[in-house]
Amino acid sequence: MRLAVNIDHIATLRNARGEQEPDPVAAALLAERCGAAGIVCHLREDRRHIKDNDLARLRQAVTTKLDLEMAMTTELQQIALKTRPELITLVPEKREELTTEGGFDIARHFAVLVEFLKPFKPAGIEVSLFIEPAKKAIDLSAEAGADIVELHTGLYALKQGNEQALELKRIREAAVYAKSVGLKVVAGHGLNYLNIAPFSDIPEIEEVSIGHAIIARAVMTGLEEAVREMLRIMSALAI
Ligand code: PXP
Q: I need a labelling partner for 56 at 20 to 30 A (CA). Which of 47, 66, 85, 98 fits?
């Protein structure tokens, strides 16, 4: 199974100071060097983390695969066609949410979606739809012309015990079904170091997309060296 790393929250941290560090492009290159199969960024309508200039720089720098997560808006369609990531992932987007909250409601937007997707295939950009792990959403994704479905694992990540096992079963069945109708299958949202294990048992899922857990872990594992380094400098300067 491949890992795609979402670097949005490197930009969140950078934006907290409005300066240049940490740089999401440097983080993307580091993730690629460590074996990430792709880099994911979400250009939100409110630009709360990744900015237009980050996207342009990521396009220049990323050599594995750039996945642009985006809402179905004309503005983002134009940006995507100009930037040419290897793929786009369509997500529902609400201004007030902290992160993407649910799968894309394809049934509700079907006619608009079909029109929206038309320019992407000729441009050589694959299309992934972030959906609930449900048969109807999968059928509609295939019908709309998607290449990939990203199964929403957010509920699985929130649940525990029997409820989590049931949600995992739903994800497994959805993955098997999506593959059987010719879609590539990936998964993501809320996955972390503790809840990833059962995915080894779902070979239909080719890739997982993980952001928050990796960036949060990077802070905690990197903090030790960061503090030691500052102390080394201070000690060498006798301050
Ligand atoms: N996949 C999609 C479609 C997302 O919107 C997100 C969050 O940006 C992720 C995966 C990654 O989720 P997390 O940050 O919880 O790993």
A: 98
